[in-house]
Amino acid sequence: MGINTPSEIIADLSIGPTDQGMVRIYITSEEIDLPMDFSPEEAEEISRELLAAIALIKDKSG
Length: 62
Fold this sequence. Notes:
Blueprint: E1 12-17, E2 23-28, E3 33-38, H1 40-61
Antiparallel strand pairs: 1-2, 2-3
């Protein structure tokens, strides 16, 4: 499965700080229970990548 492959999977996404000073992205579904911890710097980079993807979509849609 790639970035452009449609999926029928329904999942919940939670994002928040941990008591260890990390940022957790937590994905759950019937098939997945996936906690991912990132340093604050890594989380900032992820947020920049998300904003860049949003900007590309907005540019394409006019």
